[in-house]
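Q: My labmate handed me this sequence with no annotations at all. I'd like to see what the chain might look like in three dimensions before we decide whether it's worth expressing. Could you predict it?
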Amino acid sequence: MAALRTSLIWHDEVMADVVSERPQKITIGPHEGATFVTPQLGLPEGFAIVRPGSRGHVLTLGGEMRGTVCVGGVEHDVAQLVREGEAGFHATAIGGLDWGVIELDATGKYKLFFAFVALDEVPVKPMFEADVEQRASFAFSMVLHAAVIFGTYQLYVHTESPIDASRDFTTNYVATRIDKFEAPAPKPAVAAPAPADKTVALATPMPTPKWHEPDTTKKIVQPVKGIDPGKRPEPKGPLEPQAERLLDQLKGGNGNPGLDRLVKAGGGEQGGGPIGGEIAGPRTRGADDKPGGGPKGDFKGGQPGGLDTGGMRTATLCSGDNCGGIPVDVTPLGPKKIDEESTLTAKDIDEVIHAARGLLTRCYQREVNRDSSLAGTVQVKFEIRADGKVTNAKVTASTVRSEAVSDCLTRSIGILKFPAKGRAIVNYPFVFATH
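A: Here is what I predict for the chain of 435 residues:
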């Protein structure tokens, strides 16, 4: 099954488009409610260029219409059909593969295009323009989804999962370690006892009966017998035996194959230090060619054990002619104004490109720092508008194997501003290298 598609065209641009799945009236004119609103074209008010007929759609032509219609596989001149019709109008049934482009007035500014398309090619309408059945179906689906989500939420029963034993053990251990070192709250002061009549021998001297307000900003640590009060006691916990065994392995090896290989790679022996020797790898050497020379030593790259990062890579850019690439090609498309004879030249292009050399070189410098083998020629084609701005910049040929360089180069050229001497198409070469 096919649908009729009609479009109003003004100055070769589609202004409105209607797809009729069933025969319906298509009207044109300046009156309110017309399918396609147009200026007065010499047609009756409410003129229906397409209307339903006994066999489908009926096309009505009249006025000063021109153009071509294809009916039944035969093309007809619209003006000839109107002249052969009665009272300046011609009506014909359309369907199947019929099509037409009709000029609605003598100027040819307003045109009407019609053709039959398959239903699967009909563009989807926005929600506010959809049929009543489509809107009702959408509303029902939204209500149904909301009901399913609400029912699932109501039926969901949350059950607490059992706590993993290892997690519970870790939690208790952390809590125990924290509680162990909490400072006890200071006790309220009590009055000193009254002196007794009899002197009693005490094992420890009696504290001074003068009370001082405690300093709550300092943490109070109770002294422990056998431990220096100035040192914090090492905490004891259930993980310490395992930690001590690992520390012993790090100190002495104890037959650990991985640790033994690490110690031998450093050139040391087990038990010779915290890891048993010096670890192999990049090292700096001082002026006396000894490791660990410090900041005053001179780095010597390329020596055994040294780190050589290579020399610095400086990017160079050669643009325009005389660079070994394709010559600059400037094709003027006309001056800025009719009374001006000046047009863009290769010299104008070179002056702007050379002024932006730093910006364009950065596109290559950033990538050659990652890959020192990048070098070659990039050919860029771009169009300059009458006001000097660039449009449609693209890479037409490149021997630099980097998409990042090409993309950065076209973006940078796209922001340049050339002299406003009319439109032009430019083919410009860039040669990148390092030294």
